[in-house]
Write a structure and sequence with these properties.
Elements: E1 18-31, E2 34-41, E3 44-50, H1 57-65, E4 71-80, E5 95-106, H2 124-129, H3 131-134, H4 138-160, E6 164-165, E7 183-185, E8 193-195, H5 201-209, E9 214-222, E10 234-243, H6 247-266, E11 275-278, H7 279-286, E12 300-301, H8 303-306, H9 312-319, E13 323-329, H10 337-349, E14 357-361, E15 364-366, H11 375-385, E16 392-398, H12 400-420, E17 433-437, E18 442-445, E19 450-453, H13 468-471, E20 480-485, E21 488-495, H14 500-510, H15 515-530, E22 536-542, H16 543-551, H17 581-586
Parallel strand pairs: 3-5, 6-9, 11-17
Antiparallel strand pairs: 1-2, 1-4, 2-3, 4-5, 7-8, 9-10, 10-22, 12-13, 13-16, 14-15, 14-16, 17-20, 18-19, 20-21, 21-22
This protein binds aspartic acid.
Aspartic acid (ASP) is lined by residues 199, 201, 492-494, 538-540.
């Protein structure tokens, strides 16, 4: 019995045709002497009817023995459903198949969870352990379909733009770039290791030296990080590199790519060019380098007003070279103690002693700090923040970056609370794309007392800032850009350093990597740059994140066929797992277990 139609195909136009469907028993209902079996395949569902008066007893009995998720092929004649029994919720709901033949292709045991269990979405462990059953759910099939369609669209678009898809190795060399790496021991060379790449960064730059000019890859990347929030140890990037370009060329390319993808996946025309914001402005206004601009609640600066204020927490911060910033969470004066505590915890996680706030309730400013404020200070707050009854004013006083980031975190939290209370609505079909530009090339690590790359060490400084690389590193802006949508970082990249001497200065003099180590880790790259490296730049977009946004799911796990848990384990295959003594011996490894150090 060979399939003639998929399970979402039959319509009244097929009435009278003999068809064969194959798939899974989605449900079986025994009603009024008839058996109804809904057959499901990847595409949809169709109702089939077994009538004992039309069928041999043996066939009818077989149908009666089928349980959910048995695999079947069913043939029969398409007919209209009896009046009043149409099912408008499924595409084939106007017809049914009057069964003539049934072939049971495989039986199924009772499942650990019903495929159509509406509760299952939240049972993450169960879903990952039985991922093959989870994948039978229509949402998952839809997500993987979107992923596949978008991947194809990306390839077509990049091909049209003259890019070559080039695969780069996944057995690479350890060159710590930031995140912890996965190491793979070499059997042939005892004591030596490959590393899985965190990204194809160095290979793609070397492809530019190799004259490839335009490269892209749907690249698998590996980062052995403690899994914060929604991250995976292995993930996919749309990785891109181009020669003879400037930042503007990347903006145009990516805007075109996203326009294509949004149209394909959501049927939406997104507006390009995207807005741009500098890193400094993003922090000043939204307290984040990936601002969600779909709502206001912007940060305001009060450094000037509180210089020399009677409230020592504020004036002290200003005297120490810091700033005072505040935001007005309109309508949140009724925040609960628990909500205030959550926000205070955010402030504390940045090293603050507490959180200063004012509730504007019953015509009064309620807060222990208000008594320290002068009338002029109050007037300044009222005017800039538009203070009214029912508002909650929140402050941060610290060094600029910390103060902005604290309020940025609190701003997002307040938005969540307001959304929950129906006081803030955000159109789910709204996409605010934003380029964040002019990042500082370097950031300072207080504990280690040294500069590190804000993006990665291959990012080019803005040309006119190069003279300050060694004399005043904090002044140097990088030619780095991030693409952000609705407060989520979709990707980032930069124009790269292509002059070997500038790259060497960055490694050795700015990042303070000793020359021997530079040679060991990056010698081949510096050497490649000496043989005619073209100016080049690129970007990588998080492919899993992109698909999650297009599918409207908060978790990238929902768009990856076989993801790992937050602890990095694969519950289905039970990995990672021990290996045999012999495998270890071959790899010249010895495992120390047992007592903790
Ligand atoms: N390799 C970078 C990353 O993975 C992206 C880039 O600079 O192109 O973040």
């Amino acid at each position: 019995m060979k399939r003639t139609h998929h399970c979402n195909e039959l319509r009244p136009a097929h009435i009278g045709q003999i068809v064969t469907l194959s798939g899974w028993v989605h449900s079986r209902r025994d009603l009024g002497g008839l058996i109804f079996i809904d057959v499901r395949d990847r595409e949809g569902r169709t109702q089939t009817v077994f009538d004992p008066s039309d069928l041999p007893k043996e066939l009818f009995d077989r149908a009666a023995s089928l349980r959910s998720e048995c695999v079947v092929a069913i043939s029969g004649k398409v007919r209209p459903r009896p009046a009043g029994t149409n099912n408008p919720r499924i595409a084939t709901g106007e017809v049914e198949v009057a069964v003539r033949a049934l072939e049971v292709l495989n039986m199924a045991e009772v499942l650990p969870f019903p495929v159509d269990d509406p509760e299952v979405a939240s049972k993450v462990k169960l879903r990952l352990q039985y991922r093959y059953l989870d994948l039978r759910r229509p949402e998952m099939a839809r997500n993987l379909r979107t992923r596949s369609k978008v991947a194809t669209a990306v390839r077509v678009f990049m091909d049209e733009q003259g890019f070559l898809e080039v695969e780069t190795p996944t057995l690479f060399k350890s060159t710590p770039e930031g995140a912890r790496e996965f190491l793979v021991p070499s059997r042939r060379e005892p004591g030596k290791f490959y590393a899985l790449p965190q990204s194809p960064q160095q290979f793609k730059q070397i492809l530019m030296v190799g004259g490839i000019e335009r490269y892209f890859q749907l690249a698998r990347c590996y980062r052995d990080e403690d899994q914060r929030a929604d991250r995976q140890l292995e993930f996919t990037q749309i990785d891109i590199e181009m020669s003879f370009i400037e930042r503007e060329d990347i903006y145009t390319l990516i805007e075109g790519l996203l326009r294509r993808v949004w149209k394909l996946a959501l049927g939406k025309d997104i507006v390009t060019p995207f807005n741009r914001i500098t890193f400094e402005e993003a922090l000043n206004r939204y307290g984040a380098d990936k601002p969600d601009t779909r709502f206001g609640m912007e940060l305001e600066d009060f450094t000037g007003q509180f210089r020399g204020s009677g409230f020592k927490v504020f004036s002290g911060a200003v005297a120490a070279g810091g700033v005072v910033k505040a935001l007005n969470a309109k309508g949140l004066a009724g925040a609960t103690q628990g909500q205030i505590e959550t926000m205070t915890e955010y402030a504390k996680s940045f090293g603050e002693k507490g959180l200063a706030y004012i509730k504007v309730e019953g015509g009064e400013w309620k807060s222990p700090i208000v008594k320290f404020f002068t009338d002029a200070e109050k007037a300044g707050l009222t005017q800039k923040l538009g203070v009214e009854e029912g508002d909650l004013i929140l402050f941060a006083a610290d060094q600029w970056l910390a103060a902005c980031e604290i309020l940025g975190r609190i701003r997002l939290y307040c938005a969540e609370v307001l959304k929950g209370q129906g006081q803030l609505t955000i159109d789910p079909n709204r996409f605010d794309f934003l380029w964040v530009v002019d990042f500082p090339l370097l950031s300072f690590d207080k504990e280690q007392n040294r500069w590190y790359s804000s993006h990665h060490p291959f990012t080019a400084p803005v040309a006119e800032d190069i003279p300050f690389l060694t004399s005043d590193p904090k002044k140097v802006r990088g030619q780095h850009y991030d693409i952000v949508v609705n407060g989520t970082e979709l990707g980032g990249g930069s124009i790269r350093i292509h002059q070997p001497e500038v790259q060497k200065t960055v490694f050795e003099q700015v990042l303070q990597i000793p020359p021997e180590e530079t040679k060991l880790r990056f010698g081949y790259l510096l050497e490649a740059f000496r043989y005619g490296a073209p100016p080049h730049g690129g970007i990588a977009l998080g492919f899993d994140r992109l698909i999650a946004i297009l599918c409207g799911t908060p978790s990238i796990r929902d768009v990856i066929a076989f993801p790992k848990t937050a602890k990095g384990t694969d519950l289905m295959t039970d990995s990672p797992a021990p290996v045999t003594a012999r495998q270890l011996r071959d790899l010249h490894l010895e495992v120390k277990t047992g007592k903790k150090e």
